[in-house]
Amino acid sequence: MSEKSEALRKYDFLYDALANKRGLDITALYLGEDSYVSDVFILVTANSDIHMGTLRDAALEALHAHGFSTSVEGRESLRWCLVDAGEVAVHIFSAPGREQYKLDKLWGDAPSYHHSYRE
Q1: Which of 2, 85, 92, 107 sees the fewest Cβ atoms within 10 Å?
Q2: pLDDT in tens, 27-63
Q3: Is 30 within the bounds of a domain?
């Protein structure tokens, strides 16, 4: 397994936490040295304002359980919320917010991983 693949699969616990709360279109982007912010961006879409909060809380709980310190930006936003854990950042979007920010396209050439929900 390549270094980039290992870096993306390191966060399986986080993908599962988001999927268990029915996060949509969970995508991880490996940015590595291309980003001065985080090595990995995880993008997930919520289907409502309440769902955005549920996904934020699930991400925070999973990250804290694995020893990560976090900060949150956009807690009151209806389009985007960021859970920053240093080496990994979770971007939680409404559908219109994901379309507006277009991080999938902005970092489209980055190695990626698309998580599928597992029962």
Answers
A1: 2
A2: 999 988 666 678 899 999 999 999 999 999 999 999 9
A3: yes
E-strand spans in the chain? 24-30, 40-46, 71-73, 80-84, 88-94, 112-114
What is the CATH number for 56? Answer: 3.30.460.10
> Which range of residues forms the domain containing residue 92?
3-113
The tokens describing 32, both together, are 């590595």
Do the beta carbons of residue 56 and residue 9 sit within 8 Å? no
pTM score above 0.85? yes
Does the residue 118 lie in any domain? no
Kindly give the interhelix angle for 49-65 and 12-20, rounded to the nearest 10 degrees: 150
Assess contact for 10 and 63: CB atoms under 8 A.
no
Dist CA 22 CA 109 (whole Å): 27
